[in-house]
Amino acid sequence: MVSNPLPAIARVVAQQRWVMRGAGVVLPAEKFLRRVTGGRYGVLDLSGLPSIQVTVRGRKTGLPRSTSLLYVPDGADFLLIGSNWGKQAHPAWSANLRAATEATARVGSAEFPVSVTEVTGVERKAAWDQAVEFWPGYEMEHELAGGREFRIFRLSRLG
């Protein structure tokens, strides 16, 4: 059986600083792919990387807000890292998740409710180490963000 070489290539490419300027291309491509596949696939999926689409109510509007993210597998749970492509500001989705206790997640064609927990304190260091081991580019993004402490969330399936 031949394994997919794309995840290994993506991990190497993602550690290049110029990639962080690619959000302007990747994000529209992600929206397009999600639209034409009925939400099932995005750019990360095509790269062979774990992708999750999270829908949570906006903290100000109450309207559902969806975003597609790389996730770090954590047993049956999903870790999300608010790196925001190495920008100085936290991503908007992280503020909405911070205000929520539940959300809806979609991985491939499976859609399910999840609980949302921000990872803090002693547990945060272990989660960060796990995330960097899985996706080494987070270290570079942390540096680019001026050392901003990225928000980390754990999503756990409900039911």
UniProtKB/TrEMBL annotation:
It catalyses: oxidized coenzyme F420-(gamma-L-Glu)(n) + a quinol + H(+) = reduced coenzyme F420-(gamma-L-Glu)(n) + a quinone. Coiled coil: none annotated. InterPro entries: F420H2_quin_Rdtase, Split_barrel_FMN-bd. Belongs to the F420H(2)-dependent quinone reductase family. This is Nitroreductase family deazaflavin-dependent oxidoreductase.
